Every structure is written in structure tokens, then in C-alpha cells.
Amino acid sequence: FHFDKSIGFLRSNGNCRNMYLYRKSVVIYDLTFYFANKYLNKKDRTVDQMIQAARSGKQNFVEGMADGVTSFEMQIKLLNVGKSSLLELKEDYEDYLRTRNLNLWTEKFPRYAKMVEYCKVHNDLVDYQGYFEKWNDEEIANVALTLIHQTDRMLQSFLLSLEKQFIEQGGIREAMYKARMAGGTKK
Q1: Is the pLDDT of residue 14 over 80?
Q2: Contact (Cβ atoms closer than 8 angstroms) between residue 148 and residue 28
Q3: Could you give the 3-state DSSP secondary structure of residue 113?
Q4: CA torsion sign, 63 to 64 to 68 to 70?
């Protein structure tokens, strides 16, 4: 993301739907929707909270990227809200595993490395949908946790790159001033 000189002072934002962050957030949302409706009691508030946290992670990413055209500040705030929502969702999955005496997979767990690698290279919903019905609650929770961890790391790296861009390029006010001083938009 950078200021696009051909259009003046607005930053280009690309297509967030092609970004791994967005694509993984779609998987997290759909996986959580399936999980919450299948394994949680419909009367439990956690159903709605988990689904809303997954949705917030995805939607705030989309909104943050759109707002980034004119505002680093809003983009960073919204991306961080999405990041926080995913971390809240992580807690819900961990609570689910702990309260039901299920395994939280770590490096010592036999299937852990394969799961991490699968999640690392598979970013699209189509890669996971066929497993929804095959996986049990422990498997889904651990896959979701892995996707959340990976997305969180990507989001953190992305936020740091935005910080660097802001320091190097300034915000929209600086870009607007430079565009005005240069005589406006080039055509």
C-alpha cells in the first residue's frame, strides 16, 4: 500500500480478498460458525460470541483495508479491532478444550506439525470445507486455533509494515499538501 501518484493523494489499497489475511479470516469465520452451531448448546451465549468474534475479525479487516485509502489511523485501528476479536475467539476455543478435558495440540502432539503445515499452505475455504463433517470438536478447535495464530502473526507483521509506511510517507494530510503543491492530480 502506497500513495498512488497517478491518482493524486489517495493511497491504493489493492484487493484485500486476494490477501492471505482475508482468505484465512473467511476460513476462521466459516469454521467457527460450523463449530459453534454443531458443538455448543444453542442457549449458550458463547455461540453468538464466538461467531461474532470470528465475524468481527473478518469484517474489520475488510473495513480497515477500505479505510486505508485515506487514513492510516483508521486502518490501523480497525485492523487492531479485528486482531483483538480473533484473540478473543482464541480464548473461547482454548476454554472449550480445557473445560471438556480435550487436548490443546502442541509440538508434542503427533498430528501437530502436519496440522500447522497444512494451515500454513492452505488459505482458502475450499481447502477446509470437506473436513468440517469429518473432524471432531477437538480437531476443529485445534485447526481454528492454528489458523488464528497464523493470522495473528500475519496481522502483526502487516501492522508493523503500515507503521513503517506511515513514518516514511506520512499521512493523507502530507500527501494532500504535496499534491496541491505539485498542481493537483496528473492526468
Answers
A1: no
A2: yes
A3: helix
A4: positive
Joined together, the cell numbers standing for residue 184 give 493537483
Q: What is the pLDDT, as a whole number, of residue 176?
A: 56
DSSP code of 12? Answer: P
Contacts of 35 (CB under 8 A, 6+ apart): 50, 137, 140, 141, 144
User: How far is it, in rounded angstroms, from Cα 36 to Cα 47?
Assistant: 5
- The grid cell for 126 is 475450499
What tens digit of pLDDT does each residue of 97-116 get? 999 999 999 999 999 999 99
Q: How many CB atoms lie within 10 A of CB 7?
A: 14
Query: Given 3-state DSSP classes, what are the helix, strand and coil percentages for the chain, each rounded to the nearest 5?
Result: 75, 0, 25
The per-residue pLDDT for 8 is 47
CB within 8 Å of 52: residues ≥ 6 apart: 85
Rounded CA separation 3/169 (Å): 8
Other Cβ atoms less than 10 A from the Cβ of 2: the count is 10
Cα separations in angstroms, 180 against 9, 55, 159, 184: 9, 40, 29, 5
Q: What values do phi and psi take at 24, rounded to 5?
A: -65, -35
